[in-house]
Amino acid sequence: MSKGIPTLDEVNNFLGEDSLLPVYFLAGKDKFSLENALEQVRNAVDPLIESDFDKEIFSLDKGVDLNSILDSASSFPFGSKKKLIIVRGFENLSEKAKLLPYIISPSDFTVLVITHNAELKSATQQPFKELAAKGYLFADRKLRPSEFAEWTIKQAAKLGLKLSRDNAYMLMDFVGDEKALVEGQLQKFAGFLNGQGEITSEIIENLSSSTKEYSIFELQDALSAGNKKKSLKIILNLLDSGNDILRISAMLSKYIYTLASAIEFKKTNVSEMEAAKKLQVSPYYYKKCVQARYMFNEKRIHNAAKALLNLELAIKTSSIDPKTVATILISEMLQ
Hints:
By secondary structure, the protein is an alpha/beta fold. The protein has helices at residues 31-45, 66-74, 100-104, 128-134, 145-158, 165-175, 179-192, 201-208, 216-224, 228-240, 245-267, 272-279, 283-290, 298-317, 322-333, and strands spanning 23-27, 55-59, 83-88, 110-116, 137-139, 161-162, 197-198.
């Protein structure tokens, strides 16, 4: 993604009544950020809408013709200051360049909001190039761990809750770095704390661990103990629960990297607190890794890293079933 393109979280900076853009193109895989940005635009434009006829929502995954939508965007409002047209599912459109003529000359009385629920890998092709040039393109950006921790702390504060940086990392360790999942956990904590107080490590461990029958971290615990049967059962359960095999692989790669780093830190007498800080993980997560009885071994870590590499190659270069790959992965990691 090209530098200089504002993120979905920055949409609010472009929503002044006298400076509304004619087009907001919202792109990204993170549905939470996408929907939040869409809601912000909708809230800014709604006060200018006096007739329901001046507000339309279309979905491009249902065979709707883009030209008919653009014709509607080009027609005058029924009596409102603005028209609001929301178009979902641009990622489903095969002939995306059809949007280009409208982007070059958009209607000044219409606010056209388009969502593209997929990663936008390049802004050099049309219509994305023109959208970026006009300042109409907003794209999701993968946050670094430190940035995601900061975002989590701010979201907790909006709910009236305190959350330390270490515990923000701990929450990420438990539920991952998907904003929707983290937001769901924060809402759960807010209910538990009646909207005030501090989210402690005990609350995170007790409430987050019950989100699924099995979690990535229970898989790591089973691997740490060298329990092949339980590890296989958990990883297959994770796949059945809708978890993507590459996401599981990414989490396990982080686990193996932390183990390998922990061995090196131990050789140089780096404290657990300092090591966790260097790796941008919670002290809780780091301590769990250090306590891995079976996996805290250089040869086994090497085997595990090799097995994870083999998994990614198999997934990306063949049509092999994820469950088959997962079974091979566990067998190779714990051979």
